[in-house]
Amino acid sequence: MATRRFKVVLEWDPDESLWVTYVPALNHLSTYGDTREDALSQTREAILGYLEVAAEESISIPDHDREIELTEVEVAAT
């Protein structure tokens, strides 16, 4: 069985009080969890499900992750 690695964006949602994840390489597949660990566990399960369906439907999966950069921009607020 081959092992794949995917970059995951993980962020805290203070309005919902939970962790949200996004997998950019898989059409921004998203899930969530009450804890960081739970969110990542849910993400692993969602990725496996996505890969199974992709194989059944002959949907191509990129061989490599998209480049992801987290940066800040400064704006003048009134």
Question: In summary, what is this structure?
Answer:
By secondary structure, the chain is an alpha+beta fold.
Distance between the termini: 55 Å
What is the name of the CATH architecture?
2-Layer Sandwich
Which descriptor suits the 3D outline? globular
Tell how many strands the DSSP assignment holds: 3
Unreliable stretches = none
Secondary structure: helix percent: 25-40%
Largest sheet: 3 strands, antiparallel
Any idea of the CATH topology?
Answer: Double Stranded RNA Binding Domain
The helix count comes to 1
Number of domains: 1
Averaged pLDDT, please? 92
Portion in strands: 15-25%
Give the strand order of the largest sheet, numbering strands 1, 2, ... along the chain: 1-2-3
What is the string of helix and strand elements?
A: EEEH
Question: What structural category do the secondary elements indicate?
Answer: alpha+beta
Radius of gyration: 15 Å
CATH class: Alpha Beta
What does the model show?
The protein has 78 residues and is of the alpha+beta class. The protein has a single domain, classed as Double Stranded RNA Binding Domain (2-Layer Sandwich), CATH 3.30.160. 27% of the residues lie in helices and 21% in strands. Strands 1-2-3 form a three-stranded antiparallel beta sheet, with helices on one face. The longest helix is centred in the middle third of the chain and has 21 residues. It is globular, with a radius of gyration of 15 Å.
